[in-house]
Design a protein that fits this description.
UDP-n-acetylglucosamine1-carboxyvinyl-transferase, Chain, five-stranded mixed sheet, 13 helices, four-stranded mixed sheet, binds shikimate-3-phosphate
Length: about 425
């Protein structure tokens, strides 16, 4: 079992190349697999989660080469996948199982798919429902009216649907749009609260018959499209740890390079600005349909915020590190409307509260969020990651401001999204 040992830090200075965006890396491989011809992905994130996606599509007959941060996918078109000869395994990756299920639903063969212990506890009814409406057969483990992996999917002959998302979830939206690639007609997803739109942007980038109007995103099925070149920006969810680290550590200045600034993901910057953060974004550019820029962040005195409603899907993966920032902010921070946190890689409402409390934070668990009173002097302790990468990294950032030593146990999970996190943190100190 790996552990991370963090000490209170005086100052953080330097430049960081932020690793590629995880959400976009998954989607680039999946769309590349069903495009015709070669897709080249630059700044691909070779993390455990994305490599799980690569492995699943290799098992369905697609040749994929990963050389460092370059990934080459030899797509075989919409009808090019073949039945895998054994159960697909997505490891810890919720995005892989939910999005790949959308593509699998369009195939004329049977696929069994599962993942690790955490995946087998995450609800799959949210994708099974619309994919069944499109005509796919999906069976799984039934418990309390919910369906869990392992899933058995038999797809093919899909019909288009119009589907209003019952939860703000980019994974569900993407599963339906990806299944829509194989449906006979136009599939439409309606979302009332915007969630990340990387699938939509990539579908447009590939020229795959995608269209959007307000809350409606639609895809016309059975339109072949060619492979593309994709430049992936740095993952703002990974940058978030270093944004908060620099804000909380005295006398700090970090330059975070090439950070993705898709407006459906920049909630973290809006929230930190509202808290009083000194974050500058001098020049934005757009490549492969995704905006990005270098970001400068300096130590700041923070104040509390109230977070609820539309902002929540835009910060859903950053709430663990926002909670860390809130422990050092003046006043009471309240996060509501974030019940989805309970079904992430861990029950993040519970795990954030329990671990920050071990450091001495004043934090209360709410049914759909957290209440945090700041600022509090934190004191080093031994913390658990619960196998959740974002909990492990958020607690490492808390460790930078806690007196003495903080140990985070079971940190292998960091590999799922941010290989190289620990050496990077060491190098900046
Ligand atoms: C993701 C969507 C979000 C997010 C996850 C990645 C994606 O999940 O939490 O880390 O790449 O589509 P939900 O769709 O469940 O909100």
């Amino acid at each position: 079992m790996k552990s991370l040992h963090i000490h209170k830090t005086k100052s953080l200075k330097g430049q960081i190349g932020i690793p590629g965006d995880k959400s976009i890396s998954h989607r680039a491989v999946m769309l590349g697999a069903v495009a015709r011809g070669e897709t080249v992905v630059n700044n691909f994130l070779p993390s455990a989660d994305c490599l799980a996606t690569v492995e699943c599509f290799r098992r369905m007959g697609i040749e994929i080469k990963v050389k460092g941060m370059r990934c080459e996918v030899r797509g075989k078109g919409l009808k090019g996948l073949k039945a895998p000869n054994k159960m697909l395994n997505v490891g810890n990756s919720g995005t892989t199982i939910r999005l790949a299920s959308g593509i699998i639903a369009g195939q004329n063969f049977e696929v069994k798919i599962t993942g690790d212990e955490s995946i087998e506890k995450r609800p799959m009814g949210r994708i099974a429902k619309p994919l069944r409406l499109m005509g796919a057969s999906i069976e799984g483990v039934l418990k309390n009216n919910e369906i869990y992996a392992p899933l058995k999917i038999i797809g093919g002959n899909l019909k288009p649907i119009e589907y209003e998302l019952p939860v703000a979830s980019a994974q569900v939206k993407s599963a339906v749009l990806l299944a829509g690639l194989f449906a006979d007609g136009k599939t439409c997803v309606i979302e009332r609260m915007p969630s990340r739109d990387h699938t939509e942007r990539l579908l447009e980038h590939f020229g795959a018959g995608f269209d959007r109007a307000g809350e409606r995103a639609s895809i016309v099925g059975n339109c072949e499209f060619a492979g593309a070149e994709i430049d992936i920006p740095g993952d703002i969810s990974s940058a978030a740890f270093f944004l908060v680290a620099a804000l909380l550590t005295p006398d700090s200045e970090l330059h975070l390079l090439n950070v993705g600034l898709n407006p459906t993901r920049t909630g973290i910057i809006d929230v930190l600005h509202r808290m009083g953060a000194a974050i500058e974004i001098p020049r934005e550019r757009v490549l492969s349909a995704e905006p990005r820029a270098d970001i400068i962040v300096r130590s700041s005195e923070l104040r509390s915020v109230e977070l609820n409603g539309e902002i929540i899907p835009r910060i859903i993966d950053e709430i663990p590190v926002i909670a860390v920032a809130a422990t050092q902010a003046e006043g009471v921070t309240e996060i509501r409307g974030a019940k989805e946190l309970r079904i992430k890689e861990s029950d993040r409402i519970k795990t954030i509260a329990s671990e920050l409390r071990k450091l001495g934070a004043k934090i209360e668990e709410l049914e759909d969020g957290l209440r945090i009173e700041g600022p509090t002097k934190l004191k080093g302790a031994i913390l658990q990651s619960y196998g959740d990468h974002r909990i492990a990294m958020a607690m490492a950032i808390a460790g930078l401001v806690a007196e003495g030593e903080t140990t985070i146990e079971n940190t292998e999970c960091i590999e799922t999204s941010f290989p190289g996190f620990e050496p990077l943190l060491k190098e900046l100190r």
